[in-house]
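cache lookup: miss for this entity combination. No prior model stored, computing from scratch. Input as submitted by user K.M.:
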Amino acid sequence: MKEFFVLVNGELLPVSTASLLIGDLSVQRGYGIFDFFKTLGGRPVFLDAHLDRFFHSAARMRLEPGKSREELKEMIATLQHRNDLPDSGIRLTLTGGYSPDGFAPATPNLVITQQPLASIPVPELTKTIRLVSYPHRRQLPDVKTIDYLMAIWLQPHMLERGGEDILYHSDGSITECPRSNFFVVTAGDILVTPVRDVLRGITRGKVLELARGRFAVEERDIALDELRTAKEAFVTSTGRHILPVSQVDDVVIGGPGPASRWLSEALYRAYVE
Amino acid sequence: MKEFFVLVNGELLPVSTASLLIGDLSVQRGYGIFDFFKTLGGRPVFLDAHLDRFFHSAARMRLEPGKSREELKEMIATLQHRNDLPDSGIRLTLTGGYSPDGFAPATPNLVITQQPLASIPVPELTKTIRLVSYPHRRQLPDVKTIDYLMAIWLQPHMLERGGEDILYHSDGSITECPRSNFFVVTAGDILVTPVRDVLRGITRGKVLELARGRFAVEERDIALDELRTAKEAFVTSTGRHILPVSQVDDVVIGGPGPASRWLSEALYRAYVE
Protein backbone atom coordinates (compact mmCIF):
# COMPACT_ATOMS: atom_id res chain seq x y z
CA MET A 1 0.00 0.00 0.00
CA LYS A 2 1.26 3.42 -0.90
CA GLU A 3 2.41 5.38 2.09
CA PHE A 4 1.26 8.95 2.41
CA PHE A 5 3.22 11.87 3.76
CA VAL A 6 2.21 14.31 6.43
CA LEU A 7 3.58 17.65 7.60
CA VAL A 8 4.69 17.97 11.22
CA ASN A 9 5.64 21.58 11.93
CA GLY A 10 6.41 22.02 8.25
CA GLU A 11 8.51 18.86 7.87
CA LEU A 12 7.37 16.29 5.29
CA LEU A 13 7.39 12.83 6.87
CA PRO A 14 5.95 9.43 5.98
CA VAL A 15 2.85 8.95 8.13
CA SER A 16 4.31 5.75 9.64
CA THR A 17 7.11 7.74 11.30
CA ALA A 18 5.34 11.04 12.00
CA SER A 19 5.07 11.53 15.72
CA LEU A 20 4.76 13.99 18.55
CA LEU A 21 6.76 13.77 21.76
CA ILE A 22 4.75 12.38 24.65
CA GLY A 23 4.95 15.76 26.39
CA ASP A 24 2.56 17.25 23.84
CA LEU A 25 -0.49 18.72 25.51
CA SER A 26 -2.82 16.61 23.35
CA VAL A 27 -1.35 13.46 24.89
CA GLN A 28 -1.07 14.91 28.38
CA ARG A 29 -4.30 16.94 28.59
CA GLY A 30 -6.37 16.43 25.45
CA TYR A 31 -5.78 20.07 24.47
CA GLY A 32 -5.93 20.91 20.77
CA ILE A 33 -8.08 21.91 17.82
CA PHE A 34 -8.35 20.80 14.20
CA ASP A 35 -10.17 21.29 10.95
CA PHE A 36 -10.91 18.96 8.07
CA PHE A 37 -11.74 19.59 4.43
CA LYS A 38 -11.86 17.69 1.17
CA THR A 39 -10.01 18.02 -2.08
CA LEU A 40 -11.80 17.03 -5.27
CA GLY A 41 -9.69 16.68 -8.39
CA GLY A 42 -6.88 18.38 -6.47
CA ARG A 43 -9.02 21.39 -5.58
CA PRO A 44 -9.61 22.09 -1.86
CA VAL A 45 -13.34 22.56 -1.28
CA PHE A 46 -14.48 25.58 0.75
CA LEU A 47 -10.89 26.03 1.91
CA ASP A 48 -11.21 29.63 3.06
CA ALA A 49 -14.25 28.81 5.18
CA HIS A 50 -12.31 25.96 6.79
CA LEU A 51 -9.27 28.17 7.41
CA ASP A 52 -11.53 30.87 8.89
CA ARG A 53 -12.82 28.31 11.36
CA PHE A 54 -9.34 26.91 12.02
CA PHE A 55 -8.13 30.39 13.01
CA HIS A 56 -11.30 30.94 15.07
CA SER A 57 -10.81 27.65 16.95
CA ALA A 58 -7.12 28.39 17.54
CA ALA A 59 -7.87 31.89 18.86
CA ARG A 60 -10.62 30.66 21.18
CA MET A 61 -8.23 28.07 22.63
CA ARG A 62 -5.40 30.63 22.75
CA LEU A 63 -3.21 28.57 20.45
CA GLU A 64 -1.05 30.58 18.08
CA PRO A 65 -0.85 28.74 14.72
CA GLY A 66 2.38 30.57 13.84
CA LYS A 67 1.39 30.52 10.17
CA SER A 68 -0.59 32.92 8.06
CA ARG A 69 -3.47 31.84 5.86
CA GLU A 70 -1.19 32.02 2.81
CA GLU A 71 1.51 29.98 4.54
CA LEU A 72 -1.03 27.32 5.46
CA LYS A 73 -2.25 27.23 1.85
CA GLU A 74 1.34 26.78 0.66
CA MET A 75 1.88 23.95 3.15
CA ILE A 76 -1.34 22.27 1.99
CA ALA A 77 -0.20 22.61 -1.64
CA THR A 78 3.19 21.10 -0.75
CA LEU A 79 1.49 18.12 0.86
CA GLN A 80 -0.89 17.69 -2.08
CA HIS A 81 2.02 17.78 -4.49
CA ARG A 82 3.95 15.15 -2.53
CA ASN A 83 1.04 12.76 -2.07
CA ASP A 84 -0.60 13.13 -5.48
CA LEU A 85 -4.05 12.33 -4.10
CA PRO A 86 -6.56 14.35 -6.14
CA ASP A 87 -9.56 13.22 -4.09
CA SER A 88 -8.66 13.39 -0.44
CA GLY A 89 -9.42 14.50 3.07
CA ILE A 90 -6.97 16.93 4.66
CA ARG A 91 -6.82 17.54 8.38
CA LEU A 92 -5.00 20.38 10.14
CA THR A 93 -4.38 19.68 13.82
CA LEU A 94 -2.99 22.27 16.23
CA THR A 95 -2.10 20.98 19.68
CA GLY A 96 -1.12 22.64 22.96
CA GLY A 97 2.55 21.88 22.27
CA TYR A 98 5.35 20.73 24.53
CA SER A 99 4.33 22.27 27.80
CA PRO A 100 7.16 22.45 30.37
CA ASP A 101 4.75 21.97 33.27
CA GLY A 102 2.40 19.60 31.43
CA PHE A 103 -0.49 22.02 31.81
CA ALA A 104 0.10 25.51 30.38
CA PRO A 105 -0.09 25.65 26.56
CA ALA A 106 3.28 26.18 24.87
CA THR A 107 4.25 26.74 21.23
CA PRO A 108 1.65 24.64 19.38
CA ASN A 109 2.52 21.69 17.18
CA LEU A 110 0.93 21.83 13.74
CA VAL A 111 0.22 18.53 12.00
CA ILE A 112 -1.28 18.35 8.51
CA THR A 113 -2.37 14.95 7.22
CA GLN A 114 -3.91 13.82 3.96
CA GLN A 115 -5.70 10.59 3.17
CA PRO A 116 -7.67 9.16 0.27
CA LEU A 117 -11.30 10.18 0.19
CA ALA A 118 -13.61 7.41 1.38
CA SER A 119 -16.54 8.67 -0.69
CA ILE A 120 -16.83 11.08 -3.58
CA PRO A 121 -19.88 13.32 -3.21
CA VAL A 122 -22.87 12.47 -5.37
CA PRO A 123 -26.07 14.51 -5.72
CA GLU A 124 -28.40 11.54 -5.11
CA LEU A 125 -29.38 10.66 -1.56
CA THR A 126 -28.76 6.91 -1.44
CA LYS A 127 -28.41 6.35 2.31
CA THR A 128 -30.15 7.30 5.52
CA ILE A 129 -29.02 7.26 9.13
CA ARG A 130 -30.58 6.27 12.45
CA LEU A 131 -29.75 8.48 15.44
CA VAL A 132 -29.80 7.80 19.17
CA SER A 133 -30.28 10.86 21.35
CA TYR A 134 -28.14 11.57 24.39
CA PRO A 135 -28.11 14.50 26.85
CA HIS A 136 -24.76 16.20 26.45
CA ARG A 137 -23.34 19.54 25.48
CA ARG A 138 -19.89 19.62 23.90
CA GLN A 139 -17.26 21.62 25.78
CA LEU A 140 -16.74 24.96 23.99
CA PRO A 141 -19.24 23.93 21.31
CA ASP A 142 -18.26 26.72 18.90
CA VAL A 143 -14.69 25.39 18.78
CA LYS A 144 -13.59 22.38 16.74
CA THR A 145 -11.57 20.87 19.58
CA ILE A 146 -10.05 17.39 19.51
CA ASP A 147 -12.35 16.46 22.41
CA TYR A 148 -14.40 13.45 21.28
CA LEU A 149 -14.35 11.72 24.63
CA MET A 150 -18.13 11.39 24.98
CA ALA A 151 -18.68 10.58 21.31
CA ILE A 152 -16.27 7.66 21.44
CA TRP A 153 -17.40 6.57 24.88
CA LEU A 154 -21.05 6.49 23.71
CA GLN A 155 -20.46 4.16 20.75
CA PRO A 156 -21.57 0.95 22.56
CA HIS A 157 -24.63 2.77 23.98
CA MET A 158 -25.54 3.83 20.44
CA LEU A 159 -24.95 0.42 18.86
CA GLU A 160 -27.04 -1.35 21.50
CA ARG A 161 -29.94 0.87 20.46
CA GLY A 162 -29.44 0.20 16.76
CA GLY A 163 -28.11 3.68 16.06
CA GLU A 164 -25.52 4.84 13.59
CA ASP A 165 -24.78 8.19 15.21
CA ILE A 166 -25.56 10.12 18.36
CA LEU A 167 -27.76 13.20 18.56
CA TYR A 168 -26.88 15.45 21.50
CA HIS A 169 -29.54 17.45 23.29
CA SER A 170 -29.30 19.85 26.18
CA ASP A 171 -32.14 21.24 28.34
CA GLY A 172 -34.67 19.56 26.05
CA SER A 173 -33.29 21.09 22.86
CA ILE A 174 -31.47 19.27 20.11
CA THR A 175 -28.00 20.64 19.42
CA GLU A 176 -25.87 18.54 17.07
CA CYS A 177 -24.30 15.18 16.35
CA PRO A 178 -20.70 14.70 17.51
CA ARG A 179 -19.37 15.35 13.98
CA SER A 180 -22.40 16.70 12.09
CA ASN A 181 -25.02 19.43 12.29
CA PHE A 182 -28.72 18.65 12.40
CA PHE A 183 -31.62 20.06 10.35
CA VAL A 184 -35.36 19.41 10.29
CA VAL A 185 -38.13 20.41 7.94
CA THR A 186 -41.09 21.19 10.17
CA ALA A 187 -44.74 20.34 9.62
CA GLY A 188 -45.07 23.96 8.47
CA ASP A 189 -42.33 23.47 5.84
CA ILE A 190 -39.71 25.53 7.62
CA LEU A 191 -36.10 24.43 7.44
CA VAL A 192 -34.73 24.68 10.98
CA THR A 193 -31.28 24.10 12.45
CA PRO A 194 -30.05 24.81 15.98
CA VAL A 195 -27.82 27.82 16.49
CA ARG A 196 -26.99 27.67 20.20
CA ASP A 197 -24.22 25.41 21.52
CA VAL A 198 -23.32 23.97 18.12
CA LEU A 199 -20.27 23.95 15.93
CA ARG A 200 -20.76 26.20 12.94
CA GLY A 201 -20.28 23.50 10.36
CA ILE A 202 -18.98 24.60 6.99
CA THR A 203 -21.52 22.38 5.24
CA ARG A 204 -24.20 23.72 7.63
CA GLY A 205 -23.32 27.25 6.50
CA LYS A 206 -23.39 26.30 2.82
CA VAL A 207 -26.76 24.56 3.22
CA LEU A 208 -28.22 27.63 4.93
CA GLU A 209 -26.83 29.84 2.17
CA LEU A 210 -28.33 27.63 -0.54
CA ALA A 211 -31.65 27.27 1.27
CA ARG A 212 -32.32 30.97 1.73
CA GLY A 213 -34.61 32.28 -0.97
CA ARG A 214 -35.89 28.78 -1.71
CA PHE A 215 -37.18 27.78 1.73
CA ALA A 216 -38.33 29.47 4.89
CA VAL A 217 -35.31 29.09 7.15
CA GLU A 218 -34.95 29.43 10.91
CA GLU A 219 -31.90 29.12 13.12
CA ARG A 220 -33.28 28.34 16.56
CA ASP A 221 -33.60 25.68 19.24
CA ILE A 222 -35.37 22.50 18.19
CA ALA A 223 -37.28 20.77 20.98
CA LEU A 224 -36.87 16.99 20.99
CA ASP A 225 -40.68 16.77 20.76
CA GLU A 226 -40.66 18.56 17.40
CA LEU A 227 -39.20 15.46 15.80
CA ARG A 228 -42.60 13.76 16.08
CA THR A 229 -44.10 16.13 13.55
CA ALA A 230 -41.03 16.76 11.38
CA LYS A 231 -41.44 16.06 7.67
CA GLU A 232 -37.74 15.57 7.02
CA ALA A 233 -34.50 15.59 8.96
CA PHE A 234 -30.91 15.38 7.85
CA VAL A 235 -27.39 15.85 9.12
CA THR A 236 -24.62 17.75 7.40
CA SER A 237 -20.85 17.50 7.53
CA THR A 238 -17.80 17.66 5.31
CA GLY A 239 -17.72 13.88 5.20
CA ARG A 240 -21.45 13.24 4.82
CA HIS A 241 -22.64 16.28 2.88
CA ILE A 242 -26.40 15.89 3.36
CA LEU A 243 -27.44 12.59 4.93
CA PRO A 244 -31.16 12.05 5.61
CA VAL A 245 -32.21 10.88 9.07
CA SER A 246 -34.62 7.95 9.01
CA GLN A 247 -35.17 7.71 12.74
CA VAL A 248 -34.28 9.31 16.08
CA ASP A 249 -34.76 6.88 18.98
CA ASP A 250 -38.30 5.53 18.44
CA VAL A 251 -39.42 8.39 16.22
CA VAL A 252 -39.53 7.35 12.57
CA ILE A 253 -38.96 10.26 10.23
CA GLY A 254 -38.68 8.31 7.00
CA GLY A 255 -36.54 8.72 3.96
CA PRO A 256 -35.37 11.87 2.25
CA GLY A 257 -38.02 14.40 1.27
CA PRO A 258 -38.10 17.11 -1.37
CA ALA A 259 -36.14 19.69 0.65
CA SER A 260 -33.32 17.24 1.40
CA ARG A 261 -33.19 16.26 -2.28
CA TRP A 262 -33.14 19.79 -3.57
CA LEU A 263 -30.47 20.87 -1.09
CA SER A 264 -28.35 17.81 -1.81
CA GLU A 265 -28.29 18.63 -5.50
CA ALA A 266 -27.57 22.29 -4.85
CA LEU A 267 -24.76 21.38 -2.44
CA TYR A 268 -23.30 18.95 -4.94
CA ARG A 269 -23.16 21.70 -7.55
CA ALA A 270 -21.45 24.02 -5.05
CA TYR A 271 -18.93 21.25 -4.35
CA VAL A 272 -17.99 20.50 -7.92
CA GLU A 273 -18.06 24.02 -9.25
CA MET B 1 20.50 18.69 33.20
CA LYS B 2 20.11 14.99 33.71
CA GLU B 3 17.75 13.41 31.23
CA PHE B 4 15.14 11.06 32.55
CA PHE B 5 13.87 7.91 30.91
CA VAL B 6 10.30 6.93 30.24
CA LEU B 7 8.60 3.70 29.23
CA VAL B 8 6.61 3.67 25.99
CA ASN B 9 4.86 0.32 25.63
CA GLY B 10 7.57 -1.23 27.78
CA GLU B 11 10.51 0.30 25.95
CA LEU B 12 12.91 2.48 27.98
CA LEU B 13 13.57 5.72 26.10
CA PRO B 14 15.06 9.12 26.97
CA VAL B 15 12.15 11.50 27.45
CA SER B 16 13.51 13.80 24.71
CA THR B 17 12.92 11.10 22.07
CA ALA B 18 9.84 9.35 23.49
CA SER B 19 6.94 9.88 21.17
CA LEU B 20 3.63 8.57 19.92
CA LEU B 21 2.65 8.46 16.26
CA ILE B 22 0.29 11.25 15.30
CA GLY B 23 -2.45 8.66 14.67
CA ASP B 24 -2.76 8.05 18.39
CA LEU B 25 -6.29 8.67 19.62
CA SER B 26 -5.05 11.12 22.26
CA VAL B 27 -3.73 13.40 19.49
CA GLN B 28 -6.67 12.78 17.16
CA ARG B 29 -9.57 12.71 19.63
CA GLY B 30 -8.32 13.48 23.13
CA TYR B 31 -9.13 9.92 24.22
CA GLY B 32 -7.12 8.50 27.10
CA ILE B 33 -6.77 8.05 30.85
CA PHE B 34 -3.94 8.35 33.33
CA ASP B 35 -2.97 8.12 36.96
CA PHE B 36 -0.27 9.83 38.99
CA PHE B 37 1.44 8.93 42.23
CA LYS B 38 4.51 9.89 44.21
CA THR B 39 7.55 8.00 45.33
CA LEU B 40 9.23 9.02 48.57
CA GLY B 41 12.67 7.59 49.26
CA GLY B 42 12.07 5.22 46.36
CA ARG B 43 8.80 3.89 47.83
CA PRO B 44 5.63 4.41 45.77
CA VAL B 45 2.97 5.97 47.98
CA PHE B 46 -0.54 4.43 47.99
CA LEU B 47 0.43 2.53 44.83
CA ASP B 48 -2.30 -0.09 45.02
CA ALA B 49 -5.00 2.54 45.40
CA HIS B 50 -3.63 4.34 42.34
CA LEU B 51 -3.47 1.12 40.33
CA ASP B 52 -7.03 0.27 41.40
CA ARG B 53 -8.16 3.58 39.99
CA PHE B 54 -6.01 3.20 36.86
CA PHE B 55 -7.72 -0.11 36.09
CA HIS B 56 -11.12 1.43 36.91
CA SER B 57 -10.51 4.37 34.55
CA ALA B 58 -9.26 2.05 31.81
CA ALA B 59 -12.28 -0.25 32.13
CA ARG B 60 -14.75 2.65 32.09
CA MET B 61 -13.15 3.96 28.90
CA ARG B 62 -12.96 0.45 27.44
CA LEU B 63 -9.18 0.61 27.13
CA GLU B 64 -7.38 -2.67 27.76
CA PRO B 65 -4.09 -1.94 29.59
CA GLY B 66 -2.63 -5.25 28.40
CA LYS B 67 -0.67 -5.51 31.66
CA SER B 68 -1.51 -7.01 35.00
CA ARG B 69 -1.03 -5.15 38.28
CA GLU B 70 2.17 -7.09 38.91
CA GLU B 71 3.48 -6.33 35.43
CA LEU B 72 2.78 -2.64 35.94
CA LYS B 73 4.61 -2.75 39.28
CA GLU B 74 7.59 -4.38 37.58
CA MET B 75 7.60 -1.73 34.86
CA ILE B 76 7.45 1.01 37.50
CA ALA B 77 10.36 -0.61 39.35
CA THR B 78 12.36 -0.82 36.10
CA LEU B 79 11.79 2.87 35.47
CA GLN B 80 12.69 3.78 39.05
CA HIS B 81 15.88 1.74 38.80
CA ARG B 82 16.89 3.44 35.55
CA ASN B 83 16.18 6.98 36.68
CA ASP B 84 17.41 6.72 40.26
CA LEU B 85 14.99 9.40 41.47
CA PRO B 86 14.00 8.49 45.03
CA ASP B 87 11.53 11.38 45.39
CA SER B 88 9.47 11.57 42.24
CA GLY B 89 6.12 11.78 40.54
CA ILE B 90 5.19 8.86 38.28
CA ARG B 91 2.45 9.08 35.69
CA LEU B 92 0.86 6.17 33.83
CA THR B 93 -0.96 7.26 30.67
CA LEU B 94 -3.10 4.91 28.61
CA THR B 95 -4.31 6.29 25.29
CA GLY B 96 -6.81 5.11 22.68
CA GLY B 97 -3.99 3.81 20.50
CA TYR B 98 -3.41 3.89 16.77
CA SER B 99 -6.96 3.79 15.48
CA PRO B 100 -7.23 2.80 11.81
CA ASP B 101 -10.28 5.03 11.30
CA GLY B 102 -9.13 7.77 13.67
CA PHE B 103 -12.16 7.23 15.88
CA ALA B 104 -12.60 3.70 17.25
CA PRO B 105 -10.20 2.84 20.08
CA ALA B 106 -7.46 0.37 19.11
CA THR B 107 -4.73 -1.35 21.14
CA PRO B 108 -3.87 1.31 23.73
CA ASN B 109 -0.45 2.88 24.07
CA LEU B 110 0.95 2.80 27.59
CA VAL B 111 3.35 5.56 28.59
CA ILE B 112 5.00 5.71 32.02
CA THR B 113 6.94 8.82 32.93
CA GLN B 114 8.87 9.84 36.03
CA GLN B 115 10.02 13.27 37.09
CA PRO B 116 11.61 14.82 40.16
CA LEU B 117 9.19 15.73 42.88
CA ALA B 118 8.46 19.45 43.03
CA SER B 119 7.64 19.39 46.75
CA ILE B 120 8.23 16.87 49.49
CA PRO B 121 5.22 16.56 51.78
CA VAL B 122 5.47 18.28 55.14
CA PRO B 123 2.96 18.08 58.00
CA GLU B 124 2.73 21.86 58.49
CA LEU B 125 0.24 23.86 56.49
CA THR B 126 2.33 26.72 55.17
CA LYS B 127 0.27 27.83 52.17
CA THR B 128 -3.33 28.60 51.31
CA ILE B 129 -5.14 28.86 47.98
CA ARG B 130 -7.77 31.18 46.48
CA LEU B 131 -10.43 29.53 44.31
CA VAL B 132 -12.63 30.94 41.57
CA SER B 133 -15.89 29.06 41.02
CA TYR B 134 -17.12 28.06 37.59
CA PRO B 135 -20.21 26.10 36.47
CA HIS B 136 -18.94 22.92 34.84
CA ARG B 137 -19.15 19.18 35.28
CA ARG B 138 -16.22 17.11 34.09
CA GLN B 139 -17.05 14.53 31.40
CA LEU B 140 -17.19 11.08 33.03
CA PRO B 141 -16.26 12.59 36.40
CA ASP B 142 -15.46 9.23 38.03
CA VAL B 143 -12.76 8.58 35.41
CA LYS B 144 -9.30 10.13 35.44
CA THR B 145 -9.37 11.03 31.75
CA ILE B 146 -6.79 13.20 30.02
CA ASP B 147 -9.55 15.74 29.32
CA TYR B 148 -8.42 19.05 30.86
CA LEU B 149 -9.81 21.21 28.11
CA MET B 150 -11.96 23.41 30.35
CA ALA B 151 -9.37 23.56 33.13
CA ILE B 152 -6.71 24.88 30.78
CA TRP B 153 -9.12 27.11 28.90
CA LEU B 154 -10.28 28.70 32.17
CA GLN B 155 -6.80 29.76 33.35
CA PRO B 156 -7.06 33.39 32.13
CA HIS B 157 -10.60 33.66 33.59
CA MET B 158 -9.22 32.45 36.92
CA LEU B 159 -6.15 34.70 36.89
CA GLU B 160 -8.21 37.80 36.07
CA ARG B 161 -10.18 37.13 39.25
CA GLY B 162 -7.08 36.66 41.37
CA GLY B 163 -7.58 32.90 41.71
CA GLU B 164 -5.05 30.12 41.95
CA ASP B 165 -7.39 27.29 41.04
CA ILE B 166 -10.91 26.72 39.75
CA LEU B 167 -13.77 25.25 41.78
CA TYR B 168 -16.38 23.55 39.60
CA HIS B 169 -20.03 23.56 40.56
CA SER B 170 -23.04 22.05 38.90
CA ASP B 171 -26.73 22.73 39.59
CA GLY B 172 -25.75 24.89 42.57
CA SER B 173 -23.58 22.25 44.19
CA ILE B 174 -19.82 22.28 44.51
CA THR B 175 -18.14 19.28 42.95
CA GLU B 176 -14.36 19.49 42.71
CA CYS B 177 -11.35 21.40 41.42
CA PRO B 178 -9.94 20.27 38.07
CA ARG B 179 -7.15 18.32 39.78
CA SER B 180 -8.18 18.25 43.44
CA ASN B 181 -11.09 17.29 45.67
CA PHE B 182 -12.79 19.80 47.94
CA PHE B 183 -13.69 19.60 51.64
CA VAL B 184 -15.37 21.98 54.08
CA VAL B 185 -15.78 22.00 57.83
CA THR B 186 -19.31 23.29 58.43
CA ALA B 187 -20.50 25.69 61.12
CA GLY B 188 -21.69 22.54 62.93
CA ASP B 189 -18.16 21.03 62.81
CA ILE B 190 -18.96 18.38 60.23
CA LEU B 191 -16.31 17.50 57.65
CA VAL B 192 -18.10 17.37 54.30
CA THR B 193 -16.93 16.47 50.81
CA PRO B 194 -18.99 16.03 47.64
CA VAL B 195 -19.59 12.50 46.44
CA ARG B 196 -21.57 13.03 43.20
CA ASP B 197 -19.84 13.85 39.94
CA VAL B 198 -16.34 13.89 41.40
CA LEU B 199 -13.18 11.93 40.87
CA ARG B 200 -12.54 9.62 43.79
CA GLY B 201 -9.18 11.10 44.69
CA ILE B 202 -6.73 8.80 46.44
CA THR B 203 -5.85 11.57 48.91
CA ARG B 204 -9.59 12.27 49.33
CA GLY B 205 -10.08 8.61 50.28
CA LYS B 206 -7.18 8.66 52.72
CA VAL B 207 -8.42 11.87 54.36
CA LEU B 208 -11.90 10.38 54.80
CA GLU B 209 -10.35 7.23 56.27
CA LEU B 210 -8.24 9.24 58.71
CA ALA B 211 -11.11 11.58 59.61
CA ARG B 212 -13.61 8.89 60.55
CA GLY B 213 -13.67 8.32 64.30
CA ARG B 214 -12.15 11.74 64.92
CA PHE B 215 -14.69 13.97 63.14
CA ALA B 216 -18.29 13.80 62.05
CA VAL B 217 -17.98 13.12 58.33
CA GLU B 218 -20.51 13.46 55.52
CA GLU B 219 -20.19 12.69 51.84
CA ARG B 220 -22.89 14.77 50.19
CA ASP B 221 -23.57 17.75 47.94
CA ILE B 222 -22.25 21.09 49.19
CA ALA B 223 -24.33 24.08 48.15
CA LEU B 224 -22.27 27.07 47.06
CA ASP B 225 -24.08 29.07 49.76
CA GLU B 226 -22.69 26.84 52.48
CA LEU B 227 -19.28 28.39 51.95
CA ARG B 228 -20.47 31.55 53.69
CA THR B 229 -20.75 29.75 57.02
CA ALA B 230 -17.91 27.25 56.60
CA LYS B 231 -15.28 27.25 59.33
CA GLU B 232 -12.58 25.67 57.17
CA ALA B 233 -12.13 24.48 53.62
CA PHE B 234 -9.30 22.66 51.92
CA VAL B 235 -8.46 20.81 48.73
CA THR B 236 -6.73 17.45 48.49
CA SER B 237 -4.63 15.83 45.79
CA THR B 238 -1.54 13.72 45.32
CA GLY B 239 0.42 16.85 44.52
CA ARG B 240 -1.04 19.14 47.18
CA HIS B 241 -1.86 16.75 50.02
CA ILE B 242 -4.05 19.05 52.14
CA LEU B 243 -4.06 22.66 51.02
CA PRO B 244 -6.29 25.10 52.95
CA VAL B 245 -8.61 27.35 50.97
CA SER B 246 -8.44 31.00 52.00
CA GLN B 247 -11.16 32.29 49.71
CA VAL B 248 -13.74 31.19 47.09
CA ASP B 249 -14.77 34.11 44.86
CA ASP B 250 -15.67 36.87 47.33
CA VAL B 251 -16.19 34.53 50.28
CA VAL B 252 -13.27 34.70 52.70
CA ILE B 253 -12.80 31.46 54.60
CA GLY B 254 -9.50 32.27 56.24
CA GLY B 255 -6.46 30.22 57.04
CA PRO B 256 -6.22 26.62 58.12
CA GLY B 257 -8.25 25.57 61.16
CA PRO B 258 -7.84 22.76 63.66
CA ALA B 259 -9.40 20.05 61.46
CA SER B 260 -7.15 20.89 58.51
CA ARG B 261 -4.12 20.86 60.77
CA TRP B 262 -4.96 17.58 62.43
CA LEU B 263 -5.71 15.89 59.09
CA SER B 264 -2.56 17.27 57.49
CA GLU B 265 -0.43 15.76 60.23
CA ALA B 266 -2.27 12.45 60.09
CA LEU B 267 -1.93 12.36 56.29
CA TYR B 268 1.76 13.14 56.54
CA ARG B 269 2.25 10.19 58.88
CA ALA B 270 0.35 7.94 56.47
CA TYR B 271 2.61 9.17 53.67
CA VAL B 272 5.91 8.57 55.37
CA GLU B 273 5.03 5.32 57.11
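stored under new cache key. Helices of chain A lie at 25-29, 47-60, 69-83, 149-153, 155-160, 202-211, 258-272.
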